[in-house]
Amino acid sequence: MAKYVVFVDDNFHHMDESHRYKLGEYDSCSQAMNECMKIVDEFIDKAYNDKISYQDLYSGYTMYGEDPFIITDDGDCRFSAWDYAKKRCQALICKREKC
């Protein structure tokens, strides 16, 4: 049975592993992905407001948010925090602007 280990990097300290931490080990890909999504959601939910643009919301995440990722032998388990953040930002802005 594959283990799914979630680590979290800091976008503000890009490529500086001294700011990385291990969030935990999970028994399934979906559990690990849910934990990763929670981290991204937390930043985006705090940064979002009625006037913020998509670009400002997304770039704020990529500059200052936490960047979770999954280490596993399961080749089908892939998570990109930046791709997920992009979709979340688009969804929030589209909901507000009814696009």
Global shape: globular
How are helices and strands ordered from N to C? EEHHEH
Task: State Rg.
Answer: 14 Å
Extended strand count: 3
Strands of the widest sheet, in order across it, are: 2-1-3
pLDDT < 50 stretches? none
Helix-strand makeup class: alpha+beta
Itemize the secondary structure elements and their pairings:
Blueprint: E1 4-10, E2 21-26, H1 29-47, H2 54-64, E3 66-71, H3 81-97
Antiparallel strand pairs: 1-2, 1-3
Helix pairs in contact: 1-2, 1-3, 2-3
Q: How would you portray this structure in words?
A:
- The termini are far apart.
- This protein has helices at residues 29-47, 54-64, 81-97, and strands at 4-10, 21-26, 66-71.
- Helix 1 (29-47) packs across helix 2, helix 1 packs across helix 3 (81-97) and helix 2 runs antiparallel to helix 3.
- Helix content is 47%, strand content 19%.
- The mean pLDDT is 95.
- The chain has a 3-stranded antiparallel sheet.
- It is globular.
- It contains 3 helices and 3 strands.
- With 99 residues, the chain is α+β, with helices and mostly antiparallel strands.
Short description:
This protein has helices at residues 29-47, 54-64, 81-97; strands at residues 4-10, 21-26, 66-71. The protein has 3 helices and 3 strands; from the N terminus they run ββααβα. A 3-stranded antiparallel β-sheet has the order 2-1-3.
